[in-house]
Amino acid sequence: MGTFTRVTIDFDTSHLLFPTIVSGVLALLGLAILIRDRRRIAGSAAYWRGVLARMDKMRFLGTLGLTLVYFSLMVPIGDFWPNTGLGFLICSVPFVFATGSLLSHDRDLKSLLPIAAISLTGPTFVWWLFTYPLFLTLP
């Protein structure tokens, strides 16, 4: 009976539980879609060649690059202040600003001010919400 009433948490890996579950479910759903729609997907090659020729490669590749840098830096920066969520906050503010600026059609001061305001208030609110009312740690 003692083993059923004890809970041990490995804090080094506990934050990976839900992302692993969600990733597994998404992979299974993606595989099911690929199997179900394999003929339609195989017949759409010409369409995708046209899309790739017309796409805005700077925005697409820039967004991918920013996302990779964001997730790559969040944990190492957060390790300077463990269990405070400052890695999330410090990385999210420039990430939201850079992504918003990259995807914006106009990059004048009038367009960048709302992006700057959102990049400061959005991640700060999420950090505050997770840290204080919900008592959850972010990287």
UniProtKB/TrEMBL annotation:
Domain annotation DUF1468: ranges: 17-139
Coiled coil: none
Protein name: Tripartite tricarboxylate transporter TctB family protein
Record field: transmembrane: 16-35, 58-78, 84-104, 111-130
Keywords, sorted A to Z: Membrane, Transmembrane, Transmembrane helix
Gene source species: Roseibium aggregatum
